[in-house]
Amino acid sequence: MRVTVLAGGVGGARFVRGLRAALGDADDHEITVVVNTGDDLWLSGVRLQPDVDSILYALAGVNDTERGWGRAGESERVSAELREWGAGWPWFTLGDLDLGTHLARTGWLREGLTYTQVAERLASRWPIGVRLLPMTDAEVDTYVVVEDGSRLHFQEWWTRHRAALRALEFQNPGVAQAVPAPGVTDAIETADVVLVAPSNPVVSIGPILAVPGIRDALARARRVVGISPIIGGRVVRGMADACLSAIGVETSAAAVARHYGRRADGGLLDMWLVAEEDAGLAPDLAADGWDVRVTPLWMTDLERSAALARAATAE
Q1: Who's near 289: CB < 8 A, 6+ residues apart?
Q2: Where are the domains of the chain?
Q3: Which residues contact 182 (CB under 8 A, 6 or more apart)?
Q4: Across 91-159, where does the E strand assignment appear?
Q5: In what order do the strands lie in the sheet with 143-146?
Q6: pTM value?
Q7: Beta carbons of 285 and 254 less than 8 angstroms apart
Q8: pLDDT digits (tens, 9 = 90+) for 275-300
Q9: CA-to-CA distance for 4 and 89, rounded, in angstroms?
Q10: What is the predicted pLDDT for the residue at 295?
Q11: What phi, psi does 292 have (nearest 5°)?
């Protein structure tokens, strides 16, 4: 089975780990993950790709499961020294091991490698069992326009302000001129199923869909299945509700489904998975023509993540 996943963030990382476990190591399975790069940024002269690294570290088994980001067993001497110099963002801590990744990436970019080539080189360090593709080789960082009219990099709004400043708009400058990274559209069009991971619909999945050509590829895909990032009317992690409110979408599994839309109506999805806690929403969605399935969505351990992945890939 060929499976392509659109993903970003911790939710995407957990889901992809479960998918790998569900499919096993059989030679007849192939997993490609198209990763959001809208969270990327330049900081202290190095290029950070938070979603790429979160998924890479999780699949390699070297992620910090307690914090939910970065490497396990980190030290933070370099970040402390940067603060002493007044460099970088004092509220954005980079672990020393994580910084090694960013330095390697930046050096390879300076040598002329593309983001796709860098992702391949990083992934070759560990037997992660999937192909990681950035959504594009262009830089299309996410910016947030807040209530006073100022524009902040997404990481400042998310990490420093914890999404407390009311967002009016999310922007990805340059995305209209971007193209999908090599292999992305082919991975979508040739997959037996494309899975939209339970990642933030606005700032993780949204930038992927904004790259010209990706929605067209999804329209040609064999089958597209989405997994709700909302359980019982609440976000699973982070402040996705603040993102949804900014684009006028209610924090509910049904509202996110309608935000993505049915492929039969010109949207994205053929099937939508909702949590048992949201089973009451299924009849109304079904009445509107949705193929909606109710299944446990909490990914509290690898076994449950794998069970969710099996439900998402089942016919």
Answers
A1: 262, 264, 265
A2: 2-142+173-313
A3: 116, 133, 137
A4: 131-134, 143-146, 151-153
A5: 151-153, 143-146, 167-171
A6: 0.96
A7: yes
A8: 999 999 999 999 999 999 999 999 99
A9: 35
A10: 98
A11: -115, 135
CA distance 136 to 175: 9
In this structure, which CATH number among 3.40.50.10680, 3.30.70.260, 3.60.21.10, 1.25.40.20 belongs to the domain 2-142+173-313? 3.40.50.10680
H or E stretch at 116: helix 115-123
Nearest CA among 307, 304, 283 for reference residue 293: 283
Task: Show the CA angle centred on residue 25, arms to residues 20 and 28, nearest 5°.
Answer: 100
Structure tokens at 183: 């292999």
Tell me the pLDDT tens digit for each residue of 183-230.
999 999 999 999 999 999 999 999 999 999 999 999 999 999 999 999
Main-chain phi, psi angles of 234, to 5 degrees:
-130, 150
How far does the chain reach from its first CA to its final CA, in angstroms? 12
Q: How far is it, in rounded angstroms, from Cα 209 to Cα 205? A: 6
The token duo for 1 is 């089975």
